Amino acid sequence: MEKVMEKALEALGLSDTNSGGFAGAWTGSGKLQTVVSPIHGEALASVTNVTPQEFDAILAKCHQAFASWKLVPAPKRGEVVKAIGDELRRNKQALAGLVSLEMGKTLREGLGEVQEMIDICDFAVGLSRQLYGLTMPSERRMHRLQEQWHPLGVVGIITAFNFPVAVWSWNTAIALVCGDTVLWKPSSKTPLTAIACTKIAEKVLRDFGFDPAICSLAIGRGSDIGDLINTDPRVALLSYTGSVPGGRHVGKLVQERFGRHILELGGNGAVIVSDKADLDIAVRSIYFGAIGTSGQRCTTTRRVIVHESVLGTFRERLLELYRKTPIGDPRDGKNLMGPLVDPAAVATMLAAIESVKAEGGKILFGGEKLPNPGGCYITPCIAEVSGNLSIVKEETFAPVLYLMSYRTIEEAIALQNGVTQGLSSAIITNDQREGELFLSVAGSDCGIANVNTGTSGAEIGGAFGGEKETGGGRESGSDAWKAYMRRQTSAINFSGTVELAQGITLEM
Ligand code: UN1
Questions:
Q1: Are residues 292 and 221 part of one domain?
Q2: What is the DSSP string of 54-90?
Q3: Do 481 and 346 lie in a common domain?
Q4: Structural domain for 424, as ranges
Q5: Pick from 310, 323, 409, 478: CA 20 to 30 A from residue 258's CA?
Q6: pLDDT tens-digit profile of 379-436?
Q7: Tally of domains within the chain
Q8: For 86-97, what is each residue's pLDDT tens digit?
Q9: Which atom, in ligand 1's list, is nearest to the CA of 459?
């Protein structure tokens, strides 16, 4: 296959053939992988995967780099992250273009994704002066009790194709100010964006005179390179974004060696549309939540639970938008939906639609393949269902939206919570009591619960992650940084005598 070297690749320092491993020097003599764009099915460039031996050397260097990086004062580490943010600002257009080219999201969403990277860098710079520990009153006279936070070690970051650059940055910006080094294994579907980001970090680290192995990279398959990361005790924390079965596998391996993990697994986002909803808000936020990134966000809206009294109006208005969805080349500003990531994703979507029909659901719109050389374009689908059918409980990573109705708010909340995943949820209502109920302990059981805005598009300032089979991990903002450091509690005695806690005496 002849490769099309696009401008975005050149601008980011990529060439026809690229090495897939980095820890201060670029390596990779393993399998040669050709990256094909879902936009047109053409080959973009090739990447050499790393061999297990090369992986071992990369991890060794990344681990070694930790020894000196952890000693750099946190605010100085923040300056490095600030410079990475500036470099991302400079490369925003090119990197967003490459994201679009490699995995097919629209350019406007690609720009949003790079903006998330910039935002988390800004957040982390501030955080570098706020890695606060607490002091507590000691129960003993002339004693002080305190905790402080120390760097942890190498953070392994395994990312998915759908946010090929942002998820790396959420983890990396935080890990770097926390004094950790990072080893990234991106999805095999998006190695080029990973190489581009690593080159950006490499440049900044070199400019500052730091060891560039602080941001290392190992491209290879999950079953070989991924498992080497999962099982190696040199990886102190593993941040894994992927499917529920993938997370189950990773979680076991990391736990086996008492490593730490942050799991960001599947979602099954639902929006409750109340009879007291502003339907304009409901229709627009659900539309974006369902078709954005072609339904391939873990925060995608997959279920809409509509009050029976407004179902008819809501259905019509949503269908109206679906019917006129501009689908095509995601780099063209007029399109709202691009391709799915590969033909296999299209096949999965078609199979899910067949299951919906078999379970008695009614297809209201979509699910039609569109002619294109890459074979990745399909119209978004809406299906009306009677509740959480077994196919509805599965996370089909594609634009299939399930519509169901409810009578009481309690029934709606039970439907929203009636799946195994627990990432994102929302209610659209102008009734404050309903909104508060939804956010209360009797409401949504998800890590994200929104009112009058959709399930996707979380801001970096909050902690991101979910409950139940979503894995329980939190990354990005708030105090998610604590997972990237080790906590040390200290009692300091300045009394000049020995006094034991809990009133225990040494009298004989
Ligand atoms: C993901 O789909 O893995 O909340 C992450 C959102 C984005 C991140 C999604 N900020 O939709």
A1: no
A2: HHHHHHHHHHHHHHHHTTS-HHHHHHHHHHHHHHHHH
A3: no
A4: 269-451
A5: 478
A6: 999 999 999 999 999 999 999 999 999 999 999 999 999 999 999 999 999 999 999 9
A7: 2
A8: 999 999 999 999
A9: 10
